[in-house]
Structure formats: structure tokens, C-alpha cells
Amino acid sequence: MQALYLALALFLLLNLAAGMWRVLRGPTAADRMLAAQLFGTTAVAVLLLLAQATGNAALRDVALLFALLAAVTAVAFVRRAWPDQASDHDPK
Amino acid sequence: MIPSDYLSAALLIAGAVFFLAGTVGLLRFPDVYTRLHALTKADNVGLGLVVAGLALQAESWAVVGKLLLIWLLVLLAGASVAHLVAVAARQRGIKLWKR
Q1: Which of A40, A51, A52, B3 could form a disulfide with A70 if both were Cys (CB 3.0 to 4.6 A apart)?
Q2: A36, B69 Cβ separation under 8 angstroms
Q3: What is the pLDDT of residue A92?
Q4: How many CA atoms lie within 13 A of B33 on its CB side?
Q5: Which residues does chain A have within 8 Å of residue B57's beta carbon, measured at their own beta carbons?
Q6: How many Cα atoms within 13 Å fall on the side-chain side of residue B57?
Q7: Where are the domains of chain A?
Q8: Quick check: A89 pLDDT over 70?
Q9: Are B50 and B17 in contact, with CB atoms under 8 Å apart?
Q10: What digits encode the pLDDT tens for the residues B53-70?
Q11: Could you give the ipTM of this predicted complex?
Q12: Contact B26 A22 (CB under 8 A)
């Protein structure tokens, strides 16, 4: 099972590298943010697999933290960091 | 390998396939809204299957609880984020993709 965990973690890491293409290409800020969001979830899965493979339980706490941070990041992006010149909706 | 190992391996591999589908969708789909659709599959089902596969191997119920907690947190975050990004994209005038 050890080999399977590590192989899958590597596979997910390669997925993550492929997702970088979307971060580079855009075209909108939202597309880049969605790619970053997928990185967050993939990182959680990789960390859970590594926690099981290495028997290091602390990695599960790291995964929990990543899940939490990914949510906060996306909300901060939508509410604060995404410039909104195109419309006059939702004044802040 | 005992039978539960095979089940666990099948679940983990199925989860990885969903992550692959999410990444391919993110790269190939034409606009923000369709990419959101690809992303949520990886978030919800991909991670769900990986968590289910790992839960079968977990050494204690506390670990199973923590895995489920992580998955539920990602589910909740993924749903809220997908909604927020879609609404914000609409407000900023990003056009829907038309063939």
C-alpha cells in the first residue's frame, strides 16, 4: 500500500504542475484564482496520502489548515482583491 | 493485501481520476463558469473518494473523524467559493460562453 500512496501523491503533484498552465494563461483573475483553489484541494489530498504513507499524523493537521486557508483566500480574493471597475454593483 | 486494501486502493485510484478530470477540465473548458464546474468535481468527489480510501486504512476512529472533518470543511468551502466566484464574475460582466 505504501507504494500506491506515494505513487498517487506523485500523480496528484503532476496534476498540480499541469494546473500551473491555467495560472499563467488566465485570462481573467478569476481563472487564476480557480487554479489556486484546485491547488489547495490537491495539496490537501497529497498531504493526507503522505500522512498515511509515512505514518506522520501531524501532516493531517497541516491538511486541515490548508483546507481552512484555501477557503479564506478565495473569500478574500472575491471581496477585496478582484478589481471591480466594470460595474457599479455591490458598493463597498 | 487483505480485501479492505483492495477496496481502499480502488477508492484512492478513483479519487485520483477525478482529480485528473478536474485538472483537465480547468485547462480545457472555455470560460470561468464551466471551469468552476470542473473544479468542484475534483473538490467534492475526488477528495471524498481519497478520504474514503484512507479512512478504510486508518488506525483509529479519531483519524477517521479528522479525515471526515477535513472533507466536510473542503465541501463547505468549495460550495461557498464556487457561488461567490460565479456571482462576482457575473457582476464584473464576464460573458457566458456560447458555441
Answers
A1: A40
A2: no
A3: 45
A4: 13
A5: 1, 52
A6: 27
A7: 2-81
A8: no
A9: no
A10: 888 888 888 889 988 999
A11: 0.86
A12: yes
